[in-house]
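If I may wish for something, please walk me through the protein I am sending here so I can picture the backbone:
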Amino acid sequence: FGARAVVFSGVAGGLRPDLAVGDVVIADRVIQCDAGRIEDGRLRVYQPGHVEFFNPTDRLGYDVDPALLARVREALAGLESGARVVYDTVLTGDQYLHCEDTRTRLHAEFAGAAIEMEGGALAQVCESFGVPWLVVRALSDLAFCPDLPAVTADDALHGRQADACAFEVAAAVKPLEHAEQADRKSTRLNS
């Protein structure tokens, strides 16, 4: 398809205690927190696509391209969306999280700010094809907070907040694309 970058937006559950429903988390890193093997009665998290005994790695997670992230930070620096925007680790898992103990453990174990279900796969595929990627998530819930229902009536609003932020992010990605094209053209001219 020739994608130069992939920007993925939506909602997530909050893990970081200082975040609130409606805040937007832009991933600077994504970790698939439920891939690995069961050992001694507990999941030992391991990098997807790797198996210790024939394809070992010490790596865990996928980092956002630093140039793309810098551009996005610059583009969003003056944005006034009504939502707080933070850059932090987003966890990906296959289950909907509604458990205070697990929320606390995942935040402590992986320093995750939010948890969702797709970003890890997106990052893995994009990285394998050499395509920069970005995950933008508005918090729809706090992955179990006794003071709030698990799913709020404002989910559509939070999705719109993430989409609006993603729209601004896409505007930041476009100049990056033009800069890359200019660099390639300059390289060809100088060769």
In short: The radius of gyration is 18 Å.
